């Protein structure tokens, strides 16, 4: 029967894989963006945040003697790459990516809220500040996406109506 610390350690491994998946989704997107420089800039910023989040998770895994799961990292990274490729065929790629990114950010938010609770419940109080930093970055990205989905959609519509290939 797993105890709270075991569940916490598994959660850290899952979060590590999740963040690697996020990178495999975001990196191809940012390379393709042409008409939405503010989106590209924010995604670049979040890629940097995500890389720091992985470093924090590495620190936390070292503290609990938990190796990261290379299998989960690879599997979720591949899944993220496939998801990113799937949207490239859509004429409204930028809009669909915004929807998917918003959903993924909220998934990450839920994961970090759960990890904070598990850290507190398993006597890992010193981990809370690192997990909270990750959570705060995910909340900020989700908020940014939330504020920009409608204007981005209308910009896409305007560019498309004007005969511009506005997909990315």
The third-level CATH topology is: Ferritin
Radius of gyration: 17 Å
Q: Which of globular, elongated, flat, extended, rod-shaped describes the shape?
A: elongated
* Share in helix: over 70%
The total of beta strands comes to 0
The second-level CATH architecture is Up-down Bundle
C-alpha end-to-end distance:
49 Å
Overall number of structural domains: 1
Largest sheet: none
Counted by DSSP, the helix tally is: 5
Fraction in beta strands: under 5%
- The run of helices and strands is HHHHH
Structure characterization notes:
Residues 40-67 form a coiled coil. This is Ferritin-like metal-binding protein YciE. Keywords: Coiled coil. The chain has 168 residues and is mostly helical. It has a single domain, classed as Ferritin (Up-down Bundle). The protein is 82% helix and 0% strand. It is built from 5 helices and no strands. The chain has helices spanning 4-32, 37-63, 70-88, 93-121, 128-161. Helix 4 (93-121) packs antiparallel against helix 5. It is elongated. It starts with a helix and ends in a 7-residue tail after the last helix. Mean pLDDT is 88; it is low at 76-82.
Task: List key phrases describing it.
single chain; about 170 residues; mainly alpha; Ferritin; 5 helices; elongated
Write the layout of secondary structure elements.
Layout: H1 4-32, H2 37-63, H3 70-88, H4 93-121, H5 128-161
């Amino acid at each position: 029967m797993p105890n709270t610390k075991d569940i916490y350690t598994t959660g850290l491994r899952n979060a590590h894989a999740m963040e690697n998946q996020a990178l495999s989704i975001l990196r191809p997107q940012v390379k393709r963006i042409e008409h939405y420089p503010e989106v590209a800039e924010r995604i670049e910023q979040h890629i940097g945040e995500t890389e720091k989040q992985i470093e924090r998770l590495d620190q936390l895994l070292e503290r609990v003697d938990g190796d990261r799961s290379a299998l989960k990292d690879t599997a979720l990274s591949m899944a993220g790459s496939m998801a990113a490729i799937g949207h490239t065929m859509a004429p409204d790629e930028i809009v669909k990516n915004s929807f998917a990114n918003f959903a993924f950010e909220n998934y990450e938010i839920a994961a970090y809220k759960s990890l904070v609770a598990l850290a507190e419940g398993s006597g890992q109080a010193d981990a809370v500040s690192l997990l909270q930093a990750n959570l705060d970055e995910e909340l900020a990205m989700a908020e940014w996406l939330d504020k920009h989905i409608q204007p981005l959609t209308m910009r896409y519509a305007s560019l498309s109506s004007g005969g511009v290939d506005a997909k990315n």
